[in-house]
Amino acid sequence: MAATVEQVAEAMFQLVKETHGKKSLKAMDLTKAMIEKFGEAECNKDLCKQAIRQLMDSGRCIYSYFGGSFITLPPDQA
Amino acid sequence: MSEKRATPLLDELEKGPWPSFVKELKKSADTPAVNDLLGQLERSYEEKIGHWKHGGLVGVMGYGGGVIGRYSDLQAEFPECAEFHTLRINQPAGWFYTSDALRTIADIWERHGSGLTNMHGSTGDIILLGAKTQALEPIFAELTAAGFDLGGSGSDMRTPSCCVGQARCEWACYDTMGACYDFTQTYQDELHRPAFPYKYKLKFAGCPNDCVASVARSDMAFIGTWRDDIKVDNEGVRAAAAGGVDIQKEICDMCPTRCMAWDGSTLAIDNSNCVKCMHCINVLPKAVKPGDDRGAAILIGAKAPIVGGALLSSVFVPFIKMEPPYEDLKELISRIWDLWAEHGKNRERVGEFIQRIGLGNFLEQIGLDPVPEMISAPRSNPYIFFGDEVSEGGQA
């Protein structure tokens, strides 16, 4: 059974949280990590795109720009 | 309001007959943010140092593009422009507005921002210069309520732009405004949520005159062209000649491929050698027109950075009919983005990516066959290695 948007969003959020302050992650970094984690049969780029949108629309993550656009935690949660 | 800033160096830029951005800024100098902006700019001219920090965490909820963070590094001295963020607003296709729409934007901007605008930025967007962080969400809410949306910034698809096309120009070989609007709507996610190694610009030009400079300034240019013969009305050519146009000197001798001949009565064109440069059409607009079998050439890979490293785009698809819903084009774009997003380096434009991996590999990966029009110059290396299937029969 394919992973759900919520599951992928949660896994992405945890990854952003774990790497915060250590490594800047782009959308494609998260996508590659999720496909590796869930497997190609369960996760694809479209699903990851929806998961990122959910993270952004909910305010759990925000975009930052430091010579490129990255996904990070909002300042009050960092 | 704080005291008016003295700007003796900037004042020099008001002298002379040319337009002056200082003069324009000073018209708004009663606004505290603009007053401090002028003060900080004067300081930059004194010290020859820019005092802006760029980027950061600013934006509106859900979006990764459309707001460019700007912070002063002299915040104590110029507090009113300590935060001076830029907003990019997606312009209407072809930059057509009603006066009501312009008043709406101006009113919103005067309520919440500095009042300074740039109509339009080099991206094509409406640029609003100078907002504080806390004003971003209210501005966004009012703009979207009025039917506007933010444009692109950062590592996303930038706001597509187009020439006025068939709305005002008889030479437009396809509906640039329709295509621009269609692609903008299709790629809303890519516009608002950055997912690429770097920016990706789409520009739609209706003919090879390329009024949006797509050949130099977009990662993917759609330039209108035609594949049948140029339409010549020799009566019109003779009328132009009678009116003082030197057909031989101004038309035939300036044709880049010398594919035209004029015998004093008839303008003959060898269409197989015409490169669709538009010169003859531009000089003789009443007598010479683009052909009827119209579409677009797609070019890829341009970039025009401020400091250095400009690239012109290269022909990618020599001719394609530009008809909605543009499925073939969207499929092609999707394959390019998939490859580049996965393998491109941070801040690597698609043109640089193609240079790095080689056009042959790029074409193979996206599944596009090479065609002669893609060749920018003949090869200088005479050594060619044929595959086994070619060598059989004498080439070993």
Summarize the structure.
Chain A is built from 3 helices and 2 strands.
Give structural notes:
- The complex is a heterodimer of chains A (78) and B (396).
- Chain A has 78 residues and is mainly alpha-helical.
- Chain A has one domain (5-72): Winged helix-like DNA-binding domain superfamily/Winged helix DNA-binding domain (Arc Repressor Mutant, subunit A, Orthogonal Bundle).
- Chain A is 53% helix and 10% strand.
- Chain A has a two-stranded antiparallel sheet with strand order 1-2.
- The longest helix of chain A has 15 residues, at 5-19.
- Chain B is globular and about 75 Å long.
- In chain B, helix 4 packs antiparallel against helix 5 (136-145).
- In chain B, strand 8, helix 8 (214-217) and strand 9 (220-226) form a beta-alpha-beta unit.
- Chain B has 396 residues and is of the alpha+beta class.
- The longest helix of chain B is centred in the C-terminal third of the chain and has 17 residues, at 327-343.
- A five-stranded mixed β-sheet of chain B has the order 7-8-9-14-15.
- The mean pLDDT of chain B is 94.
- Chain B folds into three domains: 8-145, 2-Layer Sandwich (Alpha-Beta Plaits), CATH 3.30.70.2500; 161-225 and 295-374, Sulfite Reductase Hemoprotein, domain 1; 231-289, Alpha-Beta Plaits, CATH 3.30.70.20.
- The chains are: A mainly alpha (78), B alpha+beta (396).
- Chains A and B meet through helix 2, helix 3 and strand 1 of A and helix 12 of B.
